[in-house]
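User: tokens in, sequence out, please.
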């Protein structure tokens, strides 16, 4: 059998590139996916109770890229959801990232912008150089807030404290002097109005795209010839781990459906300092779904299992670079996405990379 393109992985990277090839080049794509569904980690579905849930944890789309927003908007409308995250600390519910609102709830007093600035100035630690994910936080707000919000959550999430991780990990949550309580400040944000999976179905609805589910790439590689291959799975797996295994953080998701309409005050509530789980997601908030019951999901980070998070540590980047060199030697084979580039990428970054590759 011969196809123009094989695309491995039906996540955002694989779906975007397949859609472009099929519609813009009018070429045939064989899209191979090891799971029993499309959508990758962004997959959502109705559970037995009839509640729309995200199988692999909370996914909120956000971007400043007009190109990416307009591209995905070809396949979906957006529901206008704005993400707000509550952190449960010291027995209080406060918004994260740290803002004026967070500080007022935490310290039970009012702050003017000037007072808040002075507060942070007093406590922040002056460093010559930012070298890790702890430095980013303590250089903005000092040790106390670092310990309250970041130290233990990060240990649970990554298995190591922030001082062993790249600054980008905590830089995602920069401190604010204003009352903006949104989790993301991007210009465009929301959730596909009928869910992510419906959006993916529309992207792949093309007679040039043939989808093969429940199939690992290595099961078919000897039988299907191709002009070009786009691989979005783990790069170390592709090369049979010749340079060693790249470590990923994994998660256990524990779902519960409850006989109440609402469980918590936001879609996501983080628990930095208590429990083994990092956060609880209640999906109805995302989709504005009305239902007499509600489904929640606890996240328990772990070392083994499905690869979800490439670990941003310098020594693993060194291993990845060896694979990247192998990848560059291959003609007509391209590697994109979170797993193939071993990079902590958001959804919009993945789409942009796929559009650029196309
Ligand atoms: P994936 O979605 O992982 O898709 C890769 C696909 O390839 C998978 O379906 C996999 O089964 C398949 N595959 C792998 N190997 C093989 C093989 N050998 N053969 C066949 N198929 C294979 N980003 C945001 O922007 N906003 C968020 O709120 C957000 N929340 C997140 C929450 C969690 C818990 C996680 C883990 C990630 C989150 N992300 C978020 C990141 C987002 O999930 C990724 O950016 C996005 O899914 C990456 O798309 P991808 O196509 O690169 O990878
Ligand atoms: N983080 C934290 N406390 C929190 C939330 C996040 O320490 O309450 C840290 C943690 O290391 C996490 C990182 O900030 O991995 C980025 O958070 P984000 O919500 O962006 O994580 P993701 O969406 O990747 O799960």
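Assistant: Sequence out:
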């Amino acid at each position: 059998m011969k196809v123009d393109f094989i695309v491995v992985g039906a996540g955002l990277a694989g779906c975007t590139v397949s859609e472009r090839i099929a519609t813009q080049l009018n070429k045939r794509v064989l899209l191979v996916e090891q799971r029993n569904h499309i959508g990758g980690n962004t997959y959502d579905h109705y559970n037995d109770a009839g509640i729309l849930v995200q199988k692999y944890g909370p996914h909120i789309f956000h971007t400043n890229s007009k190109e990416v927003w307009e591209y995905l908007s070809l396949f979906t409308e957006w529901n206008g959801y704005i993400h707000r995250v509550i952190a449960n600390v010291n027995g209080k519910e406060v918004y994260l990232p740290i803002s004026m609102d967070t500080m007022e709830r935490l310290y039970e007093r009012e702050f003017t912008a000037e007072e808040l600035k002075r507060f942070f100035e007093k406590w922040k630690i002056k460093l010559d150089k930012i070298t890790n994910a702890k430095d980013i936080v303590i250089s903005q707000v000092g040790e106390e807030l670092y310990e309250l919000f970041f130290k233990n959550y990060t240990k649970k999430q990554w298995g190591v404290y922030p001082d062993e991780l790249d600054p980008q990990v905590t830089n995602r949550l920069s401190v604010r002097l204003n009352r903006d309580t949104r989790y993301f400040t991007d210009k465009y944000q929301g959730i596909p109005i009928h869910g992510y999976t419906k959006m993916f179905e529309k992207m792949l609805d093309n007679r040039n795209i043939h989808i093969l589910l429940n199939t690992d790439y290595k099961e078919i590689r000897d039988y299907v010839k191709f002009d070009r291959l786009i691989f979005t799975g783990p790069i170390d797996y592709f090369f049979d781990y010749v340079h060693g295994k790249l470590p990923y953080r994994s998660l256990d998701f524990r779902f519960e459906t409850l006989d109440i309409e609402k469980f918590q005050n936001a879609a996501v509530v983080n628990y930095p300092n208590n429990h083994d789980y990092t956060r609880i997601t209640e999906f109805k908030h995302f989709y504005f779904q009305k239902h007499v019951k509600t489904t929640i999901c606890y996240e328990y980070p772990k070392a083994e299992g499905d690869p979800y998070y490439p670990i941003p540590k310098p020594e693993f980047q060194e291993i990845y670079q060896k694979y990247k060199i192998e990848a560059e030697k291959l003609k007509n084979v391209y590697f994109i996405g979170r797993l193939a580039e071993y990079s902590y990428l958001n959804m919009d970054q993945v789409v942009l990379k796929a559009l650029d590759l196309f």
